[in-house]
Amino acid sequence: MTVRASAPGKAILFGEHAVVYGKPAIAVAVDKRASVTIREGSNDHIQVKIPELNVYGVINTETGDVSQLNSEGEVDQKPGTTDVGIMKFIKSALSQTDLGSSLDHGLDITVNLEIPIGAGLGSSAAITIATLAAAARYKGQELSLENLAQMGHQVELEVQGAASPLDTTVSTLGGFLYFTRERGAVRIKPALEMPLVVGYTSQPGNTGILVEGVRKLRQAHPTIINPLLDVMEKLTNQARESITRGEEKQVGELMNINQGLLDALGVNTTELSRLVYHARRAGATGSKLTGAGGGGSIIAYCPGKTREVLEELESVENAFQVGISSKGVTW
Ligand code: PMV
Prior knowledge:
Layout: E1 2-14, E2 25-40, E3 46-50, E4 55-59, E5 66-69, H1 81-96, E6 107-113, H2 123-139, H3 145-160, H4 166-173, E7 176-180, E8 184-187, E9 196-200, H5 207-220, H6 222-245, H7 248-264, H8 270-281, E10 286-290, E11 297-301, H9 306-316, E12 318-322
Parallel strand pairs: 3-6
Antiparallel strand pairs: 1-2, 2-6, 2-7, 3-4, 4-5, 7-8, 9-11, 9-12, 10-11
Helix pairs in contact: 1-2, 1-3, 2-3, 2-4, 3-4, 5-6, 6-7, 8-9
Bound molecules: (3R)-3-hydroxy-3-methyl-5-(phosphonooxy)pentanoic acid (PMV).
């Protein structure tokens, strides 16, 4: 039997980090996806292949140990940390659905990725949601979207530590979402086009470490950081209104202000700043880092200037245009 599922990556337009403290965020699913194929294995173990990253791993079904293989099929003694990280998400997703321990045969799992890793575009959430959906399908288990998003969040908590359910929710549902921890996701109907360009640095950001850094800063300076998080909440709410009213200029301005606030939280970097200013110079109405920061990506909102911004960012780092995808997980 062969089953397949896929889920989109996401881009956060407003409210990252603040969302960890119960504040709202606005995020979109992007037209870049992770696809997971599961088929009966050629041996007793779970073999994972991620061709786009040249990652080949094995999960030992008896011990749960994860090892990475090199191109000769031998255990790689020095695997990249990002690659090991992805394997942990897959392993945790399989154990959430009990797949792996409940079978009398191994599994061959292939992950195909259109989303760059560690770029703040939700690649781990997309891999997690697609793995959960494919694993449930393999077992013939019915899962609601709500269950799937919840299980995805558990996986992120287990592997990454502190995380809000934002990434896994967007990856499950797709579309343009306003999200709070308390109320979950509400769909937004934008009254404007959202031409977006992503620029990504070659240095991936580590979400767990960055979230922890903000937690420590808040602990050290609560009277400064708490009001800052309150301002981020106001900003995201205002952005929601501007998006639904079609106020292009305001959306851009609010993105720029959000960038300043994220810098104050300590998650900006010189490389991200550079991209942010290059995008604005090329005509972006607004630009900011997106996701956890510390590396990863910026997102630029560039009505009428997509080509200019794309070319400018490509001259400095990697860049691509992203479309908003209404399609969440499919299986
Ligand atoms: O870097 P990403 O794509 O994992 O986004 C992280 C978003 C944060 O708000 C910083 C953390 C979270 O779990 O919401």
